[in-house]
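Fig. S4 source data, part A: sequence.
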Amino acid sequence: MSNLIIKRPKEIFELFSSLRNLSGVGEKKLKLLEKKIGPYLINLLFHLPHKSIDRFQNVSLKKVNHGDILTCKVEVVEVNIPPYNFRKKNNISRIITFGSNDEKNVRLDIVYFGQNTQYLKNIFKVGSKIYVSGKFENFNGLGQIAHPDYVVKEYEKKLIPLIQPIYPLFHGINQKFISKIINEGIKKIPTIPEWLRKDILIKYQFPTWQTCIFKTHNPENNSDANSNSVFRKRLALDELIANQISMLLIKNKISKIHKTNKTYGKSKLIENFYSTLPFELTKNQKKVIDEIKEDIHSNKTMVRMLQGDVGSGKTIVAVISMLNAILNGSQAVLMVPTEILAIQHFNTIQNLLKPIKIEPILLLGENRSFYDNKTRSNIIKQIADGKIKIIIGTHALISKKVIYNNLSLAVIDEQHRFGVKQRVEITDKGNSVNLLVMTATPIPRSLALTAYGDMDISVLSEKPIGRKSINTYVLSHKKIAEVLSSIERAIKAGALVYWVCPLIEDSENSDLIAVNERYNFLKNNFKNIKVSLIHGKQNQIEREKSMNEFKSGESKILVATTVIEVGVDIPEATIMVIECAERFGLAQIHQLRGRVGRSNKESSCILLYNSNLSSIAHSRLKILKENDDGFKISEHDLELRGPGEILGSKQSGNLDFKFVDLHIHNQLIPIARDEARKMLENEEDREKINFLLSIFENNEAIKLLKGG
């Protein structure tokens, strides 16, 4: 965040001061810190250690093992420091010491490479007793510490921390520097009012927010450094409360009481539509459709999320929901994140609605080749006149130029590609607009409560009738010749094949297969079979051409990046090959796998991995091979990757958690929801809410709090 959008409470102004105010932070370091951590002091305080070291776990020269951190008292018996020569980078200084007290006969060498000699002469003198701490190595039978982390005099032992936090680093920043400026920053924390209620503080014995920040960066023991410590627990609760407040503010902004409550009986339109469907709806689909219909026709605005596994039939639920919404002559929109997906949804929905003579319209951004500007202007005019009832499109649907006649339902597909702003903007396009967001990424319950705490949730858990399971195979890349032979046989039998690669171009620093390289390889390998290519860097015409070639069966293999991860629905495609599968997340592979198995035909997914597969990567691929339940896979993915990655970039503006570990802090979610509700209901708590949201930088929520 480069600029403060909202005016912060003056008491915490210091938390949003520039890092340039800290000692030792010059322009070069400032640019690095701003890029990697953020521009403000609060960003630095929230830069948490990813682990900690117990420096006094090993204190015996006799018992320490190679690679352990050792802290012990020694006596200097010999100093060998050659004259410093900056041209000779391999200058070796060796200080020979022996253990003090009961370890007097045990030798420990302290070694430096290319170190300034005067500095070493000042700290190492024969006969002196010192404490040394660093990584112990067994080198040719002799124990040594190269470039120790700490060397202090006997009476300065306290300068070595018992528990040392270890921070994530980046080029140009080392542990000593980051630790120094964080602790300098802690001293600048101002006195801020307490936002937690007294009974919560007493019940859980929570210290102040300032104390918790201090202890997180300066743990006194292993339990202090634990994610389950009282300090991290309090900070996690604060963060969850801020998250839940923002969710409730969004719901309050969107949810309004209708002035009238129109009751709809059985609709001839809906009955006719059901009779034209070429398939039977599942019980689960019918149940969810009824939930949404009840919401749409109630006296309160709907704010609902529909989550379903890949291929569970969300699109037909959305279509029927839109038909229910337009029964009184109003309008419904379906907003999707990409043009490929928008065009595909439009074609699918257009075909479904033809028998009942309803014509949807597609609205894309300006300067797109799909239609000229005159046609686009005419579409916008018809939307404003209310002549078009169902509109499908991208972000263009929330453009200022687009004015709706009477928008009553907004459906957002692939919700994780959008944020709070888009949700609010689309509902602002009408009066009391019902909101239905859909996601094909099954979300664990704990994550759903934090990401979608403002919504009612419906779940599609059944596969459509007639769908078969997908056979998943995990193979080494060395077996690619066998894969090619199998594919050739399958294509001759009528199959269409997706071939997914993780990169667009070759990179000298990566062994991932580039999509262009694989496209050329497959074209050369299958001389008589047409191969198409699709990726995000192509223009719209190229992508459409490739997709249409594959959809029509003109091309038999579609080489692609993850641009086809969601929404692409080609029932004839029955084989999915994913290269470098070990580099993808579990949920992402599950999404890609869901592009096949969309008919009653046998389908397969082949996961190709590179050599030297780690045990963790092997277990992840095994999960996919043995499991096709997206909800179970998402639980594993949450454990492996964390919430932000599963839901996508800046999911709701709030899920880039700093202190919350959903596995450990699960039980805090209902407490946070309860506290958030109480704070919002109490007018006297508005200033506290402002403090809390400011600290966690929920700017969109602060705007809503202030009525923006």
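Fig. S4 source data, part B ends here. The mean pLDDT is 85.
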